[in-house]
Write a structure and sequence with these properties.
The complex is a heterodimer of chains A (250) and B (394). Chain A is an alpha/beta fold and 250 residues long. In chain A, 43% of the residues lie in helices and 14% in strands. Chain B folds into 2 domains: 149 residues, Rossmann fold (3-Layer(aba) Sandwich); 212 residues, Rossmann fold (3-Layer(aba) Sandwich). Chain B is built from 17 helices and 14 strands. The chains are: A alpha/beta (250), B alpha/beta (394).
Chain lengths: 250, 394
């Protein structure tokens, strides 16, 4: 299995919904097989200042959940997408309308930050049955026993499935997205090695990674680094996506 | 359901509540539930809490007959449960102190809290000063401006008050920021949530530490009058005061009423009456009635009272209302202000703007033929003096 070198995160609607297909095509042109697309939410409790601000700008520009998914419909020149979201906007759409909106998009899985397994069993089962598994999250506070359970509850569909549907997301550090640059990667390295001992599925590591050295360090562990806030901040400044990503893949 | 928890995580026929938390907070929430259950079964903890409530908080708080206000409104009898006389000026200290004791028992040295009107922040800061815990309170900038005396009180008690600039600068944003801060420091800090909301076990924890209000009030009214009132009334922001007063009267067959903030209009954004304009949704870790737009984004709210403008009703209180055992009503800003003035003039008691919403329901209850009422006076109005001065042209 070749290592997916980078999992970029883009906030839908920031800088604009119109720009999103081009950004995704840019990521694909660099050979990236998957990307996270954030659905902007009014109360992103797991996000730091950069993604909060991006979400609020996107909402201000009319990036509703429906419009975001409609803007992804029919895209062929895109990596597989992981829809990164909070639960309430999905609940308000309802399962069937959500599935209808997802169907023509490159979305292959969902990462719902505030939905632990078991809280909305029918909703989650409906998504999975339609081909949209939920990504398991593993935090620094997740005990080894709990990690085993979480990986079983949201199981690996196996090597035939794409990365977007297989990977588990390892939260690198305590706190929220985008803060803590320069964090000691020692503890997360140990956690990744432990997790690799209990699962064969690919792992992505995110929260607070931005500099090329940290990203390389994650790749050295055999895991895929996630680049979120730093990328969103660069795109906000108008830097082209190719330049933003290239230096971080090397 | 999340089977790792032991206590029920859901309320009512529609399964409100739950634990919709990011994974980072799941183990801390599991640990908190375990510590709470152990403490509730520990007679040493119960004795310590009881002693602190008596000697530090000043419990039991009085149940004061209000005959002049009752006569003015056409009620036969009115009794006020005086949480305004609890130390720091509101019911919030009951929960803040109990959770601070629990945090110390868990070996936590640092406390995080959110505050809206500032009463929970002040109570938490005071409890932390008393127990020697470090305290950081997150507060929206709008609330800091309109509740400035409480900001000063928190700082006097040694707490750091962290301004939250996002959004409307009120309680919702303060909770967002407190949850984020807790996710960063959850291995050493305990988060003292002040309302009966948030992910399990917080709603249960807060309700358990607040029912002392209703338990005392029930015993006191029986002792003073030999009978229960026809109605018990409380204001409802998140629900800590409402549940604290109303839950102990559950088996009594009397009318239990919760009053929400009617603000200055009926359109979304002009009030905080979740039962009138709210839809089922998930915010801050629980499923409940929520003021939101069509896209699932939390709506803005409005109320003259900083303690009642949270966009969601706590899940247990929402469940009681939806299941029909508690009636929810609304009172407008103007009605609350007028009710506050009337209590001042007839009984010499200055109520908090939050409590004034409960008072504002009394004319309607009298008109409906209710003769006797027990009302939760959740806090004192000193913090609201500047609002009273400007709105009542004093």
């Amino acid at each position: 299995m070749t290592l997916n070198p980078l999992l970029p995160f883009l906030m839908a609607g920031d800088p604009s919904l119109e720009a999103l297909p081009g950004l995704l095509a840019g990521a694909r042109a660099l050979g990236l097989e998957a990307a996270e697309v954030g659905l902007p939410h009014s109360d992103p409790i797991a996000d730091g200042p950069v993604l909060q601000a991006a979400a609020h700008r996107a909402i201000g520009r009319g990036a509703t959940p429906r419009r975001v998914l409609e803007s992804l419909a029919g895209l062929t020149d895109s990596p597989d997408l992981i829809l990164f979201t909070y639960l309430n906007p999905l609940l308000q759409l309802g399962l069937d309308p959500l599935l209808r909106l997802l169907e023509p998009t490159p979305v292959r899985s969902l990462l719902v930050v505030d939905l632990p397994f078991g809280e909305e069993p029918d909703f989650e089962a409906g998504l999975r049955a339609a081909g949209y598994p939920l990504v398991p999250l593993l935090a620094p506070t997740t005990t080894p026993e709990r990690a085993k359970a979480l990986l079983d509850q949201r199981p690996d569909p196996g090597p035939g499935a794409p990365f977007a549907q297989r990977f588990a997301y390892v939260v690198a550090r305590l706190g929220v997205t985008g803060t803590g640059q320069g964090t000691d990667l020692g503890p997360v390295a140990a956690r990744v090695r432990d997790l690799q001992g209990i699962t064969a599925r690919p792992l992505a590591v995110g929260f607070g990674l931005s500099d090329p050295a940290s990203l390389r360090a994650v790749r050295t562990l055999g895991a895929t680094p996630v680049i979120g806030s730093a990328l969103v901040a660069d795109l906000t400044l108008g830097r082209p996506i190719k330049a933003c990503l290239e230096s971080r893949i090397a | 359901m999340n089977d790792a928890f032991v206590l029920p995580t859901r309320f009512g026929a529609r399964g409100l509540g739950g634990c919709y938390a990011p994974e980072t907070l799941m183990q801390p929430l599991l640990d908190l539930e375990a510590a709470f259950r152990a403490a509730m079964e520990d007679s040493g903890f119960q004795a310590e809490l009881k002693a602190e409530l008596r000697h530090f908080v000043g419990r039991p708080t009085p149940l004061t007959p209000a005959p002049r206000l009752a006569a003015k409104l056409g009620l036969k009898a009115l009794y006020l449960k005086r949480e305004d006389l609890a130390h720091t000026g509101a019911h919030k200290i009951n929960n803040a102190l109990a959770q601070a004791l629990l945090a110390r028992r868990m070996g936590r040295t640092e406390i995080i809290a959110e505050t809206g009107a500032g009463q929970h922040g002040v109570a938490t800061a005071a409890a932390c000063a008393r127990l020697g815990l470090r305290c950081t309170v997150y507060m929206g900038v709008t609330d800091m401006a309109r509740q400035a005396p409480n900001v000063a009180r928190m700082r006097l008690f040694g707490a750091t008050v962290q301004p939250v600039e996002a959004g409307q600068g009120t309680l919702k944003e303060a909770v967002n920021e407190a949850l984020r801060a807790w996710a960063g420091r959850c291995t050493e800090a305990h988060y003292i949530l002040g309302s009966a909301l948030g992910p399990h076990p917080f709603p249960t924890l807060v309700r358990s530490f607040q029912t002392v209000i209703g338990e005392e009030a029930r015993a006191q009214v029986l002792e003073q009058t030999g009978a229960l009132p026809e109605a018990v009334v409380a204001c409802a922001g998140g629900g800590s005061n409402g549940l604290g007063l109303l839950v102990p009267f559950a088996g009594d067959g009397l009318r239990r009423m919760a009053v929400e903030a009617g603000g200055h209009g009926r359109a979304l954004g002009e009030h905080a009456a979740r039962l009138d304009g709210g839809r089922m949704g998930v915010l801050h870790g629980c499923r409940t009635l929520l003021l939101q737009d069509a896209h699932g984004h939390t709506a803005e709210t409005a109320s003259v009272s900083a303690g009642l403008d949270y966009p969601a009703l706590g899940p247990e209180l929402a469940a009681l209302v939806l299941d029909g055992t508690v009636d929810a009503r609304r009172a407008s800003d103007e009605e609350a202000l007028a009710a506050a003035r009337l209590l001042c003039e007839t009984e010499g008691i200055l109520p908090a703007l939050e409590s004034s919403h409960a008072l504002a329901l009394l004319p309607a209850l009298a008109a409906e033929g209710v003769a006797s009422v027990l009302l939760g006076l959740s806090g004192r109005g000193d913090k609201d003096l500047s609002t009273y001065q400007s709105r009542l042209e004093l």
